Amino acid sequence: MLNIPIDKKIILFDGVCNLCDSAVQMIVKHDTEDIFRFVALQSDLGQKIIQHLGIDIQKTDSIILYHPGFAYYLKSEAALEIAKNLGGIFYFATLFTILPTSFNNYIYDYVAKNRYKWYGKKEACLIPTKEIQAKFLE
User: Phi and psi at residue 136, in whole multiples of 5°?
Assistant: First the structure.
């Protein structure tokens, strides 16, 4: 399909969103098991993955978690799956799975809709530092 590692979980994120950038930096810092790789939704590879998965980008524009050959997750399910994989204190976020997905997605969509207004927006996608560049796919 695409030239992506099948043994890593791929996080597709909004590369111009300051909130998403902060989340990516936090995930990189706490990904002690080296589980994740990152791709901006706006990148060519991000668009190819979205197309391969058949996801309507009109339905989600801020986060997708793709586990190649297994599954993909959108919105709150993606965030909760990432938290579960990070473990530690983040695992407690999985308590939200007892709530209906529709409720979690309502909250998620509200934050996503307002993220640029609340946190701002970059002119261009995040450029990773040399220390974390290997975690980003092109």
Answer: -105, 130
Q: What does the alpha-carbon distance between residue 46 and residue 38 come to, in Å, rounded to a whole number?
A: 9
Q: Is the pTM of this model over 0.85?
A: yes
Quick one: CA torsion of 17, 18, 24, 26, rounded to 10 degrees?
Answer: -160
Structure tokens belonging to residue 50: 């979205």
Q: What pairing do the DSSP bridges indicate for beta strands 36-40 and 9-13?
A: parallel
Give the tens place of pLDDT for each residue, 3-15.
Answer: 788 899 999 998 8
Q: Taking each helix axis from N to C terminus, what angle separates 75-86 and 18-30, rounded to the nearest 10 degrees?
A: 30
Pairwise CA distance, residues 18 & 115, whole Å: 8
CB atoms within 10 A of CB 126: 20
Tens digits of residue pLDDT in 82-107:
999 998 888 888 888 899 999 999 99
